[in-house]
Amino acid sequence: MKFLISICLLFLVSFSVSAQTIKVLNKTTNEPVFGVAIYNKDKSKSEITDLNGQANLDAFMATELLYFQHISHKLKTIKKVISKTDVCI
After folding, report:
1. Strand duo 21-25 + 86-88: pairing
2. What are phi and psi of 42, to 5 degrees?
3. Using H for helix, E for strand and C for coil, what is the string for 3-50?
4. What is the mean pLDDT of residues 64-71?
5. Nearest-CA neighbor of 33 among 15, 13, 49, 47?
6. Cα–chain-centroid distance for residue 35?
7. What's the mean pLDDT in 31-53?
8. How far apart are CA 89 and CA 68, in angstroms?
9. Do 48 and 29 form a contact (C-beta atoms < 8 A)?
10. What are phi and psi of 5, to 5 degrees?
11. DSSP string spanning 72-89?
12. Residue 47: left if φ>0, alpha if ψ -120 to 50, beta else—which one?
């Protein structure tokens, strides 16, 4: 019984610690895009994708509109959605 409780606690802790990370992909090549600026409407919060095209969105509220901007791509705006993990630009 203690083993089952330990497994359940481990699962709950790992679930609550997980961050919302997305991966920005090029729409035509499906390759990760690094250096994409992600920010909210008033630019008070921002993130930049890493070399793997990934960024953490925990700083943004669930209802915020997010703007994705890269020097070689058009500006894209999406609403933050908890279940979506890949964004194609």
Report:
1. parallel
2. -90, 10
3. HHHHHHHHHHHHHHHCCCEEEEECCCCCCECCCCEEECCCCCCEEECC
4. 90
5. 49
6. 14
7. 94
8. 8
9. no
10. -65, -40
11. TEEEEEEE--SS--EEE-
12. beta
Task: Express each pLDDT in 6-31 by its tens digit.
Answer: 444 444 444 444 568 899 988 888 89
Q: Which long-range contacts (CB under 8 A, 24 or more apart) does 27-33 make?
A: 27/88, 27/89, 30/88, 33/70, 33/73, 33/89
Beta bridge partners of 46: 39
Residue 2 DSSP SS3: helix
Q: Which residues contact 73 (CB under 8 A, 6 or more apart)?
A: 26, 33, 36, 89
State the pTM of this model: 0.67
Residues pairing with 69 in the sheet: 37
Q: What percent of the chain has pLDDT over 70?
A: 67
Instruction: Output the six-digit token pair for 7.
Output: 């497994």
Residue 58 amino acid letter: D
**Cβ–Cβ < 8 Å for 55, 49:** yes
